[in-house]
Design goal:
Blueprint: H1 2-22, H2 27-30, E1 31-35, E2 41-43, E3 48-53, E4 59-63, E5 66-77, E6 86-93, E7 101-107, E8 116-122, E9 131-133, E10 144-151, E11 154-159, E12 162-168, E13 184-191, E14 211-226, E15 229-230, H3 254-267, E16 268-271, H4 285-288
Glycosylation sites: 109
Domain GH16: 21-215
Signal peptide: 1-24
Length: 291
Amino acid sequence: MASSTSSVPVIATIFLASLIAASTANFYQDFDITWGDGRAKILNNGDLLTLSLDKASGSGFQSKKEYLFGNLDIQLKLIPGNSAGTVTSYYLSSKGSTWDEIDFEFLGNLTGEPYILHTNVFSQGKGNREQQFYLWFDPTADFHTYSILWNPQRIVFSVDGTPIREFRNLESAGVPFPKSQAMRIYSSLWNADDWATQGGRVKTDWSKAPFTASYRNFRARACIWSTGSSSCGSNSPSSSASGGDAWLTEELDSKEQNRMKWVQKNYMIYNYCTDIKRFPQGLPAECTISS
């Protein structure tokens, strides 16, 4: 009896430690709900976050921390059924008139029609770098992982570990690259039926409201920016990144390059780098530099 009772504190300690470990990365600790008047909710002890939209308002959240480079994953399940007119966004952004931004936006559609995944990169306040894709699965049926790798050499957008887009650092060719402004993570769900679905021709059906998107399993391997300095250090940026540092110099290998080319060949539906009518004075510099 003595041995069994003495083991209780040990078991309790182990159990408590496991609870602490499990709670080290959850939505309560990593994010603040910023708007929506109760339409955004953190559930399941911080493991799940939902955003909702109705005719009165959408909702949104942002990260507590700022990052200057990172490998950021989140799982997202999009609005099922008729989501026409809605936009669910997940992006990184800095502040100011010459802000940097890295965008995932999910444009809703009529029931049975595919979502459009819209991506963009802003540097020093300039965007106009849109690429759009269909997905090779139903993003409303289950959670899928959407990732942004942002290091000093490149930005890579990935879906379930498959790269779909790479934006390289081509500052040597005069192309601004996001590398000096810390960014927070933002996400929001809002009504954009003036443009989101078929150029605004299909409007939001409010009889289907509330519309809800769900998030889970956020993970950040990142350089955290705080009080003017980076957790990675200024002299050796790869020395102390949170969660390991290999991502700071990561690049796509040949298999990943081929996988990205497959996605772009089969699922890309818009690429600013081929839109000659949009750029009559010539395509942007990054579009004409061979990889």
